[in-house]
Specification:
Shape: extended
Strand content: 5-15%
Number of helices: 14
Number of strands: 9
Radius of gyration: 28 Å
Low-confidence stretches: 297-301
Length: 357
Amino acid sequence: RLNLDQLQTNGYDYIMGVKARQDEMMSMVLEDDDLFGAEAMEWRGLQIAERRIEVKDFLIWKIAGILEIDQDQRRSRWWSDLCKIIKAADKGSELNMSDLREELGQLGVRDRKKRQKIGRLLSKYRGRYEETIRLVCARNPKRAKLSERQRTEKLEKLSKQVEDLFNGKRENLIVRLEKLFEHHKRRYRRFFKWTGEEKEKEPTGYEMDGKALAEAKLYDGVFVLTTSRQDLPPEKVVASYKNLQEVETLFHDLKHFVDIHPVRHRLAIRVRAHVFLCILALLLKRVLEIDCLGSKALTETLETVARSKLVKYRVHMSKRSTRSKDFWKVTNITPEQARCFAAVGIANPENLEKYVW
């Protein structure tokens, strides 16, 4: 946030990606069932929607969530007064808990932790109460389906492992269950809820958390941008960000996918040849992505190409002897590599045996 404030102070505009799962306002935006509905525009395989969120409206929505305000309370005079206090705040206001103490008391809010959360929220957005945040949300339906399928497959696998633990020894069961979700599996822990009697130390079973699953589905295939430019149409905002993102993706691919490093050549001419071949390999990958698979690196990752190591493919030669001569034979490529070669119209490497005289 400090970087954005400095940019705006110096008169610069910005287009910035938002970490949707970590941004508070995204929960409010994604709650809208019509976000990618009839009003969303289609652009290059993406569904694009725009939302302008007033900080005051967000604060009211967030406080309602913290307090778990029901419909009856929303119709009450005290909730209405609380909303009026927040709506009346301006850039110079310094809202704090003392301004809302009477209204919260009349609403029956006695929980100290809830009051502390509201106090921190008001302090976090102090000086920004009159701001309107522009969010451009884009969703890739193909990527969304892929993410959902991958999550489903992973949860099915983890469910079987959890069942095996419940069917095994009961000693230290909770410790072994939590150990199952260490490291990269930790992000799947929130989808499992242990069930059992309150008096029992160890759980007796588990169930899937439907709320967590529904929330995860909202984020599938979605990326969000925020910008200070109010005049740019949404598709232009996405296109501008994609240009920068693709440059960064190219550098990442060059370093990791193509593996330009390490360079273990001594002569300058060999170093230049090494870099040239890596750039050529990167060009091949981009041609495959854009022209042959109709994709962009930002909107759809090429898991199939990455698994097949197409860029790293080398024609390995194996020696074969006959009674009269020795000749080299080309090893076979994998089925995934064959499909990638077929997509770009490249025939499989031919056997060299028929060219040996």
